Amino acid sequence: MGLSTHVLDTMHGTPAAGMSVALYTTEGDSVSLLKAFVLNKDGRNPEGMLLDNHHLKKGTYRLVFDVAGYFKRLTVDLPEPNFLNQVSLDFGVAHTDQHYHVPLLVSPWSYSTYRGS
Q1: pTM for the whole thing?
Q2: Each residue's pLDDT expressed in tens, for the chain with a length of 117 residues
Q3: How many CB atoms lie within 10 A of CB 2?
Q4: Domain segments of the chain: what residues?
Q5: 82-85: long-range pairs with CB below 8 Å, 24+
Q6: DSSP state of 81
Q7: Rounded distance between C-alpha atoms, residue 32 and residue 27, angstroms
Q8: Which fold has domain 2-113?
Q9: How far, in whole angstroms, is CA 26 from its chain's centroid?
Q10: Which of 18, 64, 72, 94 falls 20 to 30 Å from 106 in CA-CA distance?
């Protein structure tokens, strides 16, 4: 299957439609942008998989979610500076024949993630 993500806004109980996300590869201090996108109405990449199994490589990756920008667009009254600005999730891919789903549950004050299916 490959690599996918899904973001749920736990403050409003909805998908995080319109949130900006970037996917990077990482190796030591080196970081390379693979793609940037905006989540669709379901809180997912509009193109589907971020990487299919053919393009998913063994190694380390980073997903960066623009949490503050998303909640500001929704006119949520946030303090300056925001408690959460961008949420970065660093994770490893060991088996390129498996599905790596990286969901994010987020509010302006907290987040959680896990390896989903």
Answers
A1: 0.96
A2: 899 999 999 999 999 999 999 999 999 999 999 999 999 999 999 999 999 999 999 999 999 999 999 999 999 999 999 999 999 999 999 999 999 999 999 999 999 999 998
A3: 19
A4: 2-113
A5: 82/108, 83/108, 83/109, 84/108, 84/109, 84/110, 84/111
A6: S
A7: 9
A8: Immunoglobulin-like (2.60.40)
A9: 15
A10: 94
